[in-house]
Design brief:
Layout lengths: L4 E6 L5 H13 L3 E6 L9 H8 L3 E2 L5 H6 L2 H6 L3 E7 L1 H9 L5 H8 L4 E5 L3 H5 L1 H12 L3 E2 L3 E4 L5 E5 L3 H11 L10 E6 L4 E2 L5 E2 L6 H12 L3 E6 L11 E4 L3 H11 L4 E4 L6 E3 L19 E3 L3 H6 L9 E8 L3 H12 L3 E6 L9 E2 L1 E4 L3 E3 L3 E2 H23 L1
This protein binds cytidine-5'-monophosphate.
The site of cytidine-5'-monophosphate has 16 residues, from helix 12, strand 17 and helix 13.
Length: about 400
């Protein structure tokens, strides 16, 4: 991002306070930010705080002589590498979709020849309103890029889609649009995810409640930072993550083969809920209910994929091997024992006695060199935090080599 110029348009939504954090994030990455604050935006954040963070003039009025003397609105729209609209209100989106230009923000958006990234933020009903849906479709057809909105609790007390994407997500989307290299560029990361299905016969199987959401979120967070991700997933009902190579498997043994085929890697993350056992001599034909003796299922143990990769020799072992532990009781004690037994570098433990499976939230105890109790957060935020830790760890390892 070094030297990149961002023109940030701050619309009138409660999420405007997050745009202040976004300005800092761009600044930290070496980009410069020039801000336009709409009249409604100025109800939520002050020009003073925006200007203090951006270190530049904050532009507000189309017909302000001083502003126009400093930099005319056409020049303003061109003197940027990327235009980011955050928060983008329903009204701003409507103006953009219809080509209206009745204030500085909308005029600049019409005059610009640069890519535009929009981060919508509004009440769920407004986001789902037919007019907004239509406008978002028009804008997408016009080549406007979107990030979010996310699902979650809103300032108005409702719940649903409409929450502005987090600053870090907007930053990553901007980084991708600018073609900037991510911190994980050139790194190969293997992730296992979802449940496995162990056949009983051709129509029946043993499975578990894993939704694959946490693994997917991690894959997407790492890919967004430039990693080449081999995403090995058991059967799930969710959309595959974007920007990764998806390898679909059924059983634990398929998953193990796929992991071996994907090696070598810099990092391997085992988020899959692998079945511990498979059915010995699974039938090749459907087992019939013939009124006789009930079928007895004999089980045998599946390979432990994580333990196998942890035990690889130094030349083949990924630099970081990360496991998960889903527990229903005594989470910490079981997790500590599991980390020692499987010899992984980090282990993320969570309590699945509640509503973790299929839900958007997760609460993690992180076992690394130190133990950390993370607060309950969205699975996408767990992914962000883990991605951050991985980047730091790989950076330290690189420094140690020098
Ligand atoms: O099922 P268990 O609690 O032992 O899983 C802990 C960790 O080990 C998880 O990261 C899981 O993906 C991994 N695992 C595996 N192969 C197995 C069982 C578990 O890779 N057969």
């Amino acid at each position: 991002m070094n030297g990149k110029r961002i023109l940030l348009i701050i619309g009138g939504g409660i999420a405007a306070y997050k745009s202040l954090e976004l300005i800092r994030r761009f600044g930290k990455a070496g980009a410069s930010v020039r801000a336009i604050l709409t009249r409604a935006g100025a109800q939520f954040v002050t020009p003073l705080s925006v200007g203090a963070l951006s270190g530049d003039t904050v532009y507000q009025d189309l017909f302000d002589l001083t502003d126009e003397a400093q930099m005319g609105h056409i020049a303003l729209s061109r003197a940027a590498d990327l235009v980011v609209v955050a928060p983008a209100t329903a009204d701003l989106m409507a103006k953009m979709a219809h080509g209206r230009a009745d204030d500085l923000a909308s005029t600049v958006l019409m005059a610009t020849d640069k890519p535009v990234l929009v981060a919508p933020a509004m009440n769920v009903r407004m986001w789902e309103h037919k007019a907004t849906v239509r406008n978002a479709q028009t804008l997408t057809k016009d080549g406007i890029h979107f990030v979010g909105p996310a699902q979650g609790d809103m300032a108005c007390g409702e719940h649903g889609f409409g929450r502005m994407a987090e600053p870090e997500e907007i930053f990553t989307a901007a980084q991708n649009l600018l073609g900037a290299k991510g911190p994980l560029d050139g790194r190969h990361i293997i992730i296992t995810s979802g449940p496995t299905h162990e056949a009983i016969d051709p129509v029946r199987y043993i499975a578990n409640r894993s939704s694959g959401r946490q693994g997917s979120a991690i894959a997407e967070a790492l890919a967004a930072r430039g990693a080449q991700v081999s995403f090995i997933t058991g059967p799930v009902n969710i959309e595959p993550p974007r920007g990764v190579q998806v390898i679909r498997v059924q059983s634990a043994r398929d998953m193990e083969k796929a992991v071996q085929a994907a090696l070598p890697a810099d990092v391997a993350i085992f988020a899959a809920a692998v079945a511990d056992w498979r059915v010995k001599n699974a039938d090749t034909q459907k087992i019939k209910k013939d009124g006789g003796a009930l079928p007895a299922l004999a089980l045998e143990e599946n390979p432990d994929i994580l333990a196998g990769v942890s035990a690889l020799g130094a030349d083949k072992r990924p630099k970081l091997v990360i496991g998960f532990a889903a527990e229903t009781e005594d989470v910490l004690a079981h997790a500590r024992a599991k980390k020692a037994r499987k010899k992984c570098d980090w282990l993320l433990a969570n309590d699945v006695s509640g509503d973790c499976f299929g839900s958007e939230d997760n609460q993690i105890i992180f076992l690394g060199a130190k133990e950390e109790h993370w607060p309950k957060m969205r699975k996408s935020d767990v992914a962000e935090r883990l991605a951050h830790k991985i980047i730091t760890a790989l950076g330290e390892e690189e420094n140690n080599k020098k």
